[in-house]
Amino acid sequence: MQIGDDQGQLLTMLTRLISARRAVEVGTFTGYSSMCIARGLAEGGSLLCCDVSAEWTEIGRRAWESAGLADRIELRIAPALDTLRDLPKTADIDLAFIDADKPGYAAYWAELVPRVRPGGLLLADNVLWSGRIADPEVADANTTALRDFNDMVAADDRVETVVLTAFDGLTIARRR
Ligand SMILES: C[S@@+](CC[C@H](N)C(=O)[O-])C[C@H]1O[C@@H](n2cnc3c(N)ncnc32)[C@H](O)[C@@H]1O
């Protein structure tokens, strides 16, 4: 499912606030959040999108074309972890947005944190999981993965973190 309009506006604003030029999105689907990030990029900026679905992202490709954003978005169809591992190990990413398979979040985080520059942002969506993370009766794989992810992020002193309890929960972490 895609993020809502208000969250999209927040993504655009955060991207602008840090004058992001280089951004990475993990989980693109039909391209809405990628458009919100791409719109906020500074002149000459680019967004790398990671997704496994050629079918859903084809809708995104058409939307990027219509919106005049296609020239600043690169899409890689592959498991996101493979794409992230192939990126240079330099801290030159300004903004990363994680919104794909929940059990993968911790591994995406591990690859992204060292590649985000000091002052850059890491964002992770759905961290409240409709409140299920706080329900001790719920122990499915997605909920457990998000609980573990939230604990890991809270203990990670490479970042300072706020969890926005709006939308479905959005982690906003600033790289120290
Ligand atoms: C919630 S949707 C992304 C929504 C999008 N960020 C938006 O708000 O417009 C999750 C996406 O993650 C993708 N995905 C799932 N597992 C993946 C993986 N291992 N690697 C890359 N993408 C994956 C799915 O194909 C799906 O398109």
Total E-strand runs: 7
Structural class: alpha/beta
Order of helices and strands: HEHEHEHEHEHEE
Please identify the top-level CATH class. Alpha Beta
Shape: globular
CATH superfamily: Vaccinia Virus protein VP39
**How is the main sheet built?**
7 strands, mixed
CATH architectural group: 3-Layer(aba) Sandwich
Helix content: 25-40%
Adjacency order of strands in the biggest sheet: 3-2-1-4-5-7-6
- Termini, distance in Å? 31 Å
Chain-averaged pLDDT: 98
Rg from Cα: 15 Å
Tell me the number of structural domains.
1
Q: How is the CATH topology named?
A: Rossmann fold
Unreliable residue stretches: none
Q: Which band does the percent of strand residues land in?
A: 25-35%
What does this structure look like?
With 176 residues, the protein is an alpha/beta fold. It has a single domain (5-175), classed as Rossmann fold, CATH 3.40.50.150. 36% of the residues lie in helices and 25% in strands. It is built from 6 helices and 7 strands; from the N terminus they run αβαβαβαβαβαββ. A 7-stranded mixed β-sheet has the order 3-2-1-4-5-7-6, sandwiched between helices. Strand 1, helix 2 and strand 2 (46-51) form a beta-alpha-beta unit. The chain starts with a helix and ends with a strand. Residues 1-3, 27-29, 32-33, 50-53, 56, 79-80, 99-101, 104 line the site of S-adenosylmethionine.
Give a quick rundown of the structure.
The protein is 36% helix and 25% strand.
Task: Kindly list the characteristics that best describe this protein.
176 residues; alpha/beta; Rossmann fold; seven-stranded mixed beta sheet; 6 helices; 25% strand; globular; binds S-adenosylmethionine
